[in-house]
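Example 126, ligand zinc ion.
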Amino acid sequence: MAPTQSRSQRKAAFLQAASAMYEHLEGWYDAHPAATFEELEQELRQQRRALMGGALATLIVGRDSGYQASAPPCPECGQPLAFEGYRSWTVKGLEGDSVLDRAYYVCSACAGAAFSPSGSETGVAG
Ligand SMILES: [Zn+2]
């Protein structure tokens, strides 16, 4: 299944994740009614990292997974590559870790040479 989504689907995915994060915080506060502001903030900080990482993955992969309708040529031998599927790539960001699903192509002519087209995220990921 292609991970790319429409803008409204990406927004819905983010809002669902944000809603789940807030519900978690409400539940945590219910279970810890005497929590201090600092303890609440600490709990929220953990959730925030997951939300931020997920939001960036949705934003990036939702727009471009690297999948190409016509398979790109092998960078080594020039033969058309075959789409293998999506592989996960974890980027450790300042605000959270993002798991990016990238299209992955292999070349049968080169005994397993592989290629994943770079996307817009490579500029920030290095
Ligand atoms: Zn090749």
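Summary: The pocket of zinc ion is lined by residues 74, 76-77, 79, 107, 109-110, 113 (CB under 6 Å).
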